[in-house]
Fold this protein.
Amino acid sequence: MDYDMYSDLHKDAYGFRPRNWDAVRSLTEAEFNAECDRMADDLDDNIAAEQRAQAAAAVTFEATVAKLIETGAGDRETAIRWLANAADAGDDLGYLEYTHNLPYGYLAQR
């Protein structure tokens, strides 16, 4: 049984490494595999939830950009610069994406 893979999968699915290794080592191979399958399903669910949250965040972000353009920014580039300044992001669009829960690379694609 691959305990390193189990630990990595647990970290990916739940954000932390497993702590009760005695319980993990006491699993039969079938139980171990079932636990790995369950964690993989949880990871898939978490990824899908994050994608939904980021899609909703993009809608909110685009509404904010549109409002800034309407109220004086004039164009998208200026509106994003204003948002970056407000977030103390400077030229780091990755940080701006992070602060608005946007997918990495979102602003570079637009």
In short: The first helix runs from residue 3 to 14.
